[in-house]
Amino acid sequence: MPEIFDRANMGLSVSIRREKIAEVLIIGGGIVGSAVALGIAERGARVMMLDEGDCAFRAARGNAGLVWYQGKGQGMRQYQEWTLEATRGWPKFVDKLEELTGIEVSYRKPGGLNFCLSEAEYKSRRDLIDKIRREAEPDDYDCKMLDRTAVQELLPTIKLGDSVFGASYSVHDGHVNPLALLRALHAAFRGFGGYYYPGHSVFDIRQRAKQFVVQTFGGSFAASKLVIAAGNGTGRLAQMVGMHIPVRPEKGEILVTERTRPCLPFPCNRIQQTAEGSFLLGASQEDTGFDIQTNTRVIQCISNRARMVFPVLGKLKIIRSWASLRVITPDKMPIYEASGSSPEVFAIALHSGVTLASLHATKLADWIMDGHAPAGFQNFRCRRFNV
Length: 387
Ligand SMILES: Cc1cc2nc3c(=O)[nH]c(=O)nc-3n(C[C@H](O)[C@H](O)[C@H](O)COP(=O)(O)OP(=O)(O)OC[C@H]3O[C@@H](n4cnc5c(N)ncnc54)[C@H](O)[C@@H]3O)c2cc1C
Fold this sequence. Notes:
The termini are far apart. With about 375 residues, the protein is α/β, with parallel strands linked by helices. The chain has 10 helices and 19 strands.
């Protein structure tokens, strides 16, 4: 009996010794997890970020890189304001990120265009913009409708197709190289002493006294604060700590053309020219579960629409295409949820993780570390779905 008891204790002490202890554990090393992890590490905490390997579903590596404001937040003024604040924060955020890491993320903010290919599309876009403007702080919604002539004047080096009726335009829109952004976030995080563990898929989370103990295929971790920012994996992981976070995947397909001379100075919905000269076309919106196959019919629709906007694109070869999964909540607005108990767990799930990165690395990190929630932040909690 004593011998068995000793062995049991020995086993326990070995497992405790092997457990890595953090102040804050982040599950998910995509755009959202990395931005939050960076902000928290910068505040001096011991942060560990657990991530899956190369076969994971990762929106962070398949997105369009738009830092986008217009058209967002109808029905939730808080989201419109949060997005505006994020886009305003981007220039400073990028300066700091590039200075910390030396990684050029190719961020530009010339304003953005959303094309309307018929009078009906134009009217419906105008109605949406008007609705958001009515809900916004007076004079604080900076988006206008432009007719075809005004759009063509903005784009002297590329001719519009006959079906372009007009566009909406906002000065707050821009774009970034999303892969460079992810690399820079990770580098800056590590620069502040953060620990990154790829290939550490989490399969179990339990509470032990004032800590969460997290099991991964690469070992165990413990912390008194846990942030679940695992994209489409967030719902399943949150269930392990008694939270219900409703997210679902939505497929988006993107096409890339060969490079050409710079001729499109504005990022546009579904068409943008990268700093290297390629055009990115798409993304589609498809409700096909966790399927990430590209589909020839969808590729054709994306390329047809792009040629209707700019016929000259028909001369360029498509050299790549991919599909990736958005992280979609029931109303397509962010979920920021906190347990409010000790040990504390936070769950974050949203689309537009690129756009909101500037706030995730600052205000969201403050909220997680100090409990300072920005005004109106309770609107982002899950209880809005139970009304
Ligand atoms: C086609 C497309 C275009 C988009 N375009 C834009 C855009 O232009 N602008 C914009 O702002 N947003 C855009 N988005 C959305 C943006 O990419 C996402 O909001 C963002 O990537 C979500 O980040 P995330 O970190 O929550 O999720 P992800 O990037 O999916 O990362 C989740 C991470 O969690 C990890 N993970 C999951 N489960 C576990 C587990 N059990 N253990 C450990 N790790 C785990 C995964 O491996 C992954 O690395 C687009 C998305 C798509 C699909």
